[in-house]
Design a protein that fits this description.
The complex is a heterodimer. Chain A is an all-beta fold. Chain A has no helices and eleven strands. Chain B is an all-beta fold. Chain B has no helices and eleven strands. The N and C termini of chain B lie far apart (36 Å). The chains are: A mainly beta, B mainly beta.
């Protein structure tokens, strides 16, 4: 059974700092991995999707990497801003039952 | 495009009552799904559909019913609400379940007393 773990569960940083969020998964036979952002009381917004054949994806200040063989992904946020404060979720798609398996998220707080 | 919309935003039910959570998307996506989000449990798949007329069970389907009569709509029915169904429910859609970004609605917060 696929399990997704996100470390740390919570992170508090000062504005301007570069930071890394970690995601690990137990079954490396995945089709893709997605990073989402969730603001309090809101839905999920997709940030980046990495196909299994890719090593990384970039969007603005965000860079996500994927090492399928070791079952790891990282989300790098450069020059963090208070507006980046949210819960970040990673999810893997294995290709069966059309199911995304989610981690429990990292709650990020960026202090002005 | 409105994207994925869900109604209602909030709902309080008594045990044993039934209700339907509505989900609609205007992106002509074939794939739609329902998740529930519980503290400490993450998001779990309830039911999904790969096109009009086709539905299947996810990880936690018991107590829920779905149908897909049109591409746009994918309602979730609670037949006899139980306190264990207190949760936040999210609907999602994608052009393909396997390789494409999934788009999520804003959620429905349900409390069963």
């Amino acid at each position: 059974k696929q399990e997704v773990t996100q470390i740390p569960a919570a992170l508090s940083v000062p504005e301007g700092e570069n930071l890394v969020l970690n995601c690990s998964f137990t079954d490396s036979a995945i089709y893709n991995l997605q990073w989402f952002r969730q603001d309090p009381g809101k839905g999920l917004t997709s940030l980046l999707l990495i196909q299994s054949s890719q090593r990384e994806q970039t969007s603005g200040r965000l860079n996500a990497s994927l090492d399928k063989s070791s079952g790891r992904s990282t989300l790098y946020i450069a020059a963090s801003q208070p507006g980046d404060s949210a819960t970040y979720l990673c999810a893997v798609y294995k290709g069966s039952n059309y199911k995304l398996t989610f981690g429990k998220g990292t709650l990020l707080t960026v202090n002005p | 495009n409105a994207g994925v919309t869900q109604t209602p935003k909030f709902q309080v039910l008594k045990t044993g009552q039934s209700m339907t959570l509505q989900c609609a998307q205007d992106m002509n996506h074939e794939y739609m799904s329902w998740y529930r989000q519980d503290p400490g449990m993450g998001l779990r798949l309830i039911h999904y559909s790969v096109g009009a007329g086709i539905t299947d069970q996810g990880e936690v389907p018991n107590g829920y019913n779905v149908s897909r009569s049109t591409t746009e709509d994918f309602p979730l029915r609670l037949l006899s609400a139980a306190p264990s169904q207190t949760s936040v429910y999210f609907c999602a859609s994608a052009t393909s379940g396997s390789t494409d970004t999934q788009y999520f609605g804003p959620g429905t917060r349900l409390t069963v007393l």
